[in-house]
Amino acid sequence: MSPLQRVGRWIGDHVVLALGVLVIVYLVVPIAIVALMSFNDSSGSRNVYKFQEFTVSNWANPCKPEGLCDAVSTSIQIGLLATLVATILGTLAAFALARHTFRGRSSANMLIFLPMASPEIVMGSSLLALFVAGGLGGQLGFWTIFVAHVMFCLSFVIITVKARLSGLDDNLEQAAMDLYATEAQTFWRVTFPLVFPGILAAALLSFSLSFDDFIISNLNAGQTVTFPMFVWGAAQRGVPMQVNVIGTAMFVIALTLVLVGGWNQRRRATAKAA
User: Whole-model pTM?
Assistant: First the structure.
């Protein structure tokens, strides 16, 4: 084999790996910049994203900008409540659509995708019109944001759990019932543990979407301020570095959950193999 052919084979064997590394670097660089800026002392400078001096005061005083921690707390509360309600309703709907045949099933499957396909400005303005028409125009706030978040998280939960159900082997449930398990026992001991990873993934996705949402929240918030809204308002004067602290902390928490889940899954697989 000629040297040129060897070089061509080496490139062919490693091009996919190289592209994968480039994509990962492309995704990680903005996060790395946020983490770096969380240690930036930008006091006395209008250019808050020019690294001035290393400091840990941002981490020591994450609530220093007035209203920041209140906004984060509001986003977390709304995210947890919306995730809980959307996960319960979405899981029930996913089971109904995946396991039962009824009139209007195909139309329901199509309508599920509408909140996902519609621009957020359309959904946000539609919900605002609904709340105003229902007499809530002067009462926009925490609960209207909560209802709005449940509305758009519901579709993601249904799609995620339904995908998990479609890949579930029915023979496992039939085998359990052949061994004299009742329907309730089969569900809780066989079906639910197998579907639970999909439910957990849907819940994590819902919380991420809720915590991150700005457009729909801004239209239906009234006087309530969520974390994305706080960042948008602060950007007009100069984003405080504590915002980067919150962003870095959320990323670390999410990464930790993923790593712990992966480690736990690998440990179980090793235990079964042994």
Answer: 0.83
